[in-house]
Amino acid sequence: AAAAKPGVQPEAPAADEKGDTSVVTRLSEVYDPKAGIDIQGSPEFRSQVTHALKLVWMADRETFLFIKKNLYVIRSDNKTDFYLENGRPVASISDAHAFRSLTWCAGVIAHQAWHAWYTMYTKKKAKVIPPLPGEKDERVVDINPARLDYKRLEDILYMEDKAFEFQLQVLKKIGAPRKETDPVFRRAPRDYTLAHDGNYNLKP
Questions:
Q1: Three-state DSSP class for 74?
Q2: Under a CB-based contact definition with an 8 Å cutoff, are residues 161 and 114 in contact?
């Protein structure tokens, strides 16, 4: 039988000041900090990302494994975005997003993991995209990735909508405060600042 998924109290994970990771002391230590993901950056950045991933691990193992499978690198950068580097999915995250809070950092990582998941299966021209965590395998996909044209604005808007939906789901699962979930829920269709910044130029 599968072990029960431990909950995380609302508000508790939030860290309003840079580097505040006190909540981690209340979480289980049975966790691999590397998580199979190459975390690149300062010790403070690596610690923040590790603790953010730990929140996801504690709240929903399936979502954690989804992120682990789809992101190879999480890198400190002056921008927040997703891209492929020599075929490896990379999430670059700025300090503004990484250190806003642990829960926010986790949500932004999930957002970039969605882009990685979608992009990798699009490149493979899969006929049916595998389901996201919590979705049934038999779900009907409403867009054919083999026909996707990343230059079309409607496709970019579609992908951002879906990535933000996943970001919001993860924020709720890990108990993020409403001051973080509400802006994502009420996001304007062309507002990407809640998961992208720096040199982001509408690439999926």
A1: strand
A2: no
C-alpha–C-alpha distance, residues 159 and 150, integer Å: 9
- Alpha carbon 57 to its chain centroid, in Å, reads 13
Confidence of residue 156 (pLDDT cuts 50, 70, 90): confident
HEC profile for 95-132? HHHHCCCHHHHHHHHHHHHHHHHHHHHHHCCCCCCCCC
Residues 160-188 have pLDDT tens digits of: 999 999 999 999 999 999 999 999 999 99
Give the strand order in the sheet containing 73-76.
38-40, 73-76, 88-93, 81-85
Tokens standing for residue 93: 């995250």
Tokens describing residue 113: 């993991």
CB atoms within 10 A of CB 141: 13
Q: How far apart are CA 139 and CA 78, in angstroms?
A: 37
